Amino acid sequence: MPIAWLDHKGTKILYSDYRGLSLDKMLLQLDETAAIMAKLPNKVATLSNFEGIGVPPEFMKRAKELGKTTFEPKTAKSAIVGIDGLKGLLLKAYNTFTGATMQPFPSENEAKDYLAKS
C-alpha cells in the first residue's frame, strides 16, 4: 500500500509508505503524492512511513523542492513515522527549509491519532 487514502476517526489522511522501495521508486512515489495533492481543492492531513529505511540525499533534495511548491501549501497537518537519529536532523532541515511542521511519531497509530485531533 505505497499511497492510499485512510480514514481515522473521521479524518481523511493521505498515506505514503516508502518502506522497501528503491531510490527510483521512492522518487516516483514522492512525485505521485505531490501530483495527488496538487489536484486537491483543500488542504489534507498526510502521513509518511520511513521505518527501517534510509533517506538518500537525492530524495531529500526532491522532497524540499516539492515541499515548498506543493506539499506545504496543501498540508493541513503532517506526521511521519520511522524518524530517529540522523533522520531526525533531516526532518528538522526539511521543516526549516519548507516551513512545514511535520511531526515525528514512533508508530502509525500515534501518528494517525495526532492527525485526527483538531
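^ that was protein a. below is b, sequence first then the C-alpha cells
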Amino acid sequence: MNEKYWPLMATIAVFIALFLTGGFLFKNFLSTLVLGHILADNAFIIIAAIGATFVILSGGIDLSVGSMIGFVGVVMANLDLAGWHPLASIAILLIFGILFGALQGFIIDFCDIQPFIMTLAGLFLLRGSSFMVSLDSVPIRHPFVAEVARVHVPLPGGGFLAASAIVMLISLLAAILLAHYTRFGSNVYAIGGDRKSAELMGVPIRKTTVMIYAVGGFYGALAGVIYALYTSSGYPLAGTGSELSAIAAVVLGGTLLTGGVGMVAGTLFGGMILGLISTLIIFDGSLNSAWIIISSGLLLFIFIVMHRFLVGSFNLRGRA
C-alpha cells in the first residue's frame, strides 16, 4: 500500500478500536443507532471540517469557520421571523459564505497576508456581525424545519441516518470528487506541497487560493445551516470554538497541518472520532465533560507526533 494512505488507515483503525472498546464496556453500544446519532450530532462539525481540509491541504488555515456557523444561524433565524422561507435564506447564506471565503482568499494572496491573521479578522468580523443581528437566541418556527427533522434513512439494526447526516455524507462525496478527481484538487495539493514549485509548473496560485477559501466558506455556511436546522434556532454564540474542533477533525483524519498530504475521506473519521470520544464519556456517566477535551487533546497530540514520524520515515510529501 502507498505510504500516503497510512495516516488514513491509522485514523480508521483508531475509530474502529474506540468503537469496539465502547462495545466491550457498554451494552448495546455496538449498534447502528449509536453510529447514526454520532453522525447526526457531529454533522455540522464534519461539514465545517471538510471545507477546512481544502484550506489546510493548501498550507493555509481558516479560523472564521466557527463564527460563520453562528452568523449564518442567527441571520437565518431572523429571516424566518421576517417571513422568508428557509430555502430562500439558505440559498442566500450559502452564496454569502462563498463570497466571504473568496474575499478572504483574494486578500491573503493579493496582500500576501498570513491566512492565520486574515481569517482571525474574519472570525471577529462575523462574530461581531452576529451580535449586531441579535443578542439573543432566536427560534426558527417554519414548518419546513419540522419536515426536515422527520427525514431519515433506516439502517440495519434499528438505526437511521438523520437529514443532517445525509447532507453531510453527500457533501463529503462531493468534496472527495473535487479534491481527488479534478484539476482544482491537484492544484490544491501542489500549492500545499511546494508553493514555489507549483507556481513554476503553471498552477494559477491566486485563482486557486480564492477558490480554496470559497470552498471553505461554502462548507462553513452549510455547517451553519445544518446547525440551525438541527437546533431549530439561531444564536450569536453558536459555533464558538468550532473552528478548533474542525481543525482537530482534519488533523485526526490524517491531513498534515503543513499542507500537501491528506485525504478528504479521513476528515469524516476524524470528526467521528471526536464524536465517539464524547459518546463514550456520556455512556460512562462518571466522568465530566472536561475529559472530552482532555482525551481529544491527547489523541490529537499522538496523531501529530505520528504524522511527523511518517513524514520523516517515508517522505510522504515527495510522494503525494
